[in-house]
Request: fold
Amino acid sequence: MGKITLFDTTLRDGAQTEGISFSVDDKLKIAERLAAFGIDYIEGGWPGSNPKDVEFFKRVLDLDMGKAKITAFGSTRRANIGVEDDLNIKAILESGVKTAAIFGKTWDFHVINALKTTLEENLKMVFDTVSYLKSQGIEVIFDAEHFFDGYKGNPEYAIETLRAAEKAGADYIVLCDTNGGVLPTEIIRIIEDVFKEIKTPLGIHAHNDCGVAVANSLLAVKLGITQVHGTINGYGERCGNADLCAIIPNLQLKMGIKCVSDEALQTLTELSRFVSETANLRPYSRQPFVGGSVFAHKGGIHVSALMKNPETYEHIKPELVGNRRKVLVSELSGISNILYKAAEYNLKLEKDSLETRRIIETIKELEHEGYHFEGAEGSFELLLKKCLGLHEQLFELLGFRLIVEKKEDNGEPIAEATIKIKVDDRIIHTAAEGDGPVNALDNALRKALEEVYPEIDLIKLSDYKVRILDGKKGTAAKTRVLIESKDDKDTWDTIGVSTNIIEASWRALVDSIEYGLLKSRSERKEQ
Reply:
């Protein structure tokens, strides 16, 4: 088997995801990260389609992309015109790239009903476009659009389109499951047939409409295909494209096919989350290899076995892909979970001690009240230290008052919080406004603490979630508040529960700030 080349189309196919709109700067940042990671081909977009892609290609060629080849996307020439007169082809040449991915129709149904041209003219369109770009010194990757559907409908014609691209000198011919409806059993049969007819190196471009895009891509490699197309996090139209964050570690760790350096593979989770953040989408916690929950363990029996040997419940070491193991704590937890978390926090806890039993009972009682420590590890660490008498209280609340005032029907309410706290022997009394009562309370607390703990400026509230636990009680229902906070290094989650949403928010907010300040203090001591 030849070297596998990775072709990323996050910036083109991935950008077609509902809810994603990359700016030019976004695309440039992602391209740089992909190049640093070790991607061979980075498809930047369609130069002739919009001003954003035109600007991208102008700017990206000034960046150091290392071995990565910036690739322009486009279609074969239009029917019944000269290839040199096609504006799309001109735009590719003017973009300055050395590699182009050209898609052409291979399904007779599409040729007749979408292009409204003859089967013979479509073959000429493929040949003319590929041969012309090759004559201009461009490396050409021919995307055989709808190939598998085309092959099932008219295998002779589908193969003829590949022969046209091969005869014209295409460097790669990529078999595309554009509708994402082909199953692995069909993939095997069709690819084996193609290898009997085509000698040009082949690629696979799979969509995930049947949930098998990764499986189809891996099977294609097993059969001898040497170029794999996909996107980071599987972004793409409809159900998305084949997910490179699953394909790459499967190829490298399961199939023994090296695609990137071991050091690069250890940054895969970071790359996945960077692209998620740039796309303004929350990471999928159960995404294979890189999701936040894929190495999370909850059952006490599992954790007990895990402490003896991680291979009992983990198929790879999380560190190989830059992820980490998490042991969760809940009412289902056993002693093993508590001991594991204590060791993680460098706390000494004995298996049969009274403190351990008390911690387990406390957790069960709090979860019965509505607390949920799986998603609030910051609050759990503070709880553990409180139970062990190791918690350092940084301030004491003496009282707060909230005022929400609305003056006009169409006007926005104004929230103001007044707070009084005690730090050591000092009483601090202050007030602040906010966009809402919780924001006002947050601002007032920060204002009160900033003189004593200036590092509080580094702590940012990054997410705020509210869940009603017993909706049948209406406005008297118990409320769970989860707060995500971050500083310049880490992210942590805290929780508060109460029938009063302000009180629930206050509890989560206090945990958030105390956790951040104590973490900052501990880091300074270690330096």
In short: Residues 501-526 form the longest helix (26 residues). The longest strand covers residues 396-405. The two ends are 50 Å apart (CA to CA).
